[in-house]
Design brief:
This protein is α+β, with helices and mostly antiparallel strands and about 140 residues long. The protein has three helices and seven strands; from the N terminus they run E-E-H-E-H-E-E-E-E-H. Helices cover about 20% and strands about 50% of the residues. It is globular, with a radius of gyration of 14 Å.
Length: about 140
């Protein structure tokens, strides 16, 4: 399921590195675009208890392939283990995700990390996913 993981070095003052995870499940697998966007937004909670969905920025982009991006900040609910249970709550995090709809199925890119680290590197991340083509 996880095709690759990349570490993004932490920005000055941030507590840890960021991570870009790439997932590919095969043709017609991995769930729909909206279901994955909703799941990623659900992995972030707001300190005041408000809904992250109201703050999330979702954008559909026609790049080399249809692309949907999501951007949301708050407390990241990190998961681990076979049941993907919440293992840590990480305040001050940001999630920038992208789903590229290719001819052989969707490819999912999720960039998570401390706010400053993600903010400094989000433009390069988005430039990379927008450059995806169906060749």
């Amino acid at each position: 399921m996880r095709a690759a993981t990349y570490t993004v070095p932490k920005a000055a003052g941030d507590p840890e590195d960021g991570e870009v995870a790439v997932f590919y499940f095969g043709p017609n697998d991995g769930g729909g675009v909206q279901a994955n966007i909703d799941r990623w937004i659900g992995q972030v909670k707001q300190p005041d208890g408000s809904a992250s969905a109201k703050l999330a920025k979702i954008e559909k982009v026609q790049a080399g392939v249809p692309l949907t991006t999501v951007d949301v900040s708050g407390t990241f609910l990190a998961t681990s283990g076979p049941m993907m249970q919440v293992s840590a709550e990480k305040p001050g995090f940001r999630v920038v995700g992208a789903i590229a709809e290719g001819p052989q199925g969707a490819v999912f890119f999720k960039f998570t990390g401390p706010e400053k680290t993600v903010t400094e590197n989000a433009p390069a991340f988005l430039e990379m996913v927008k450059a995806i083509t169906k060749e």
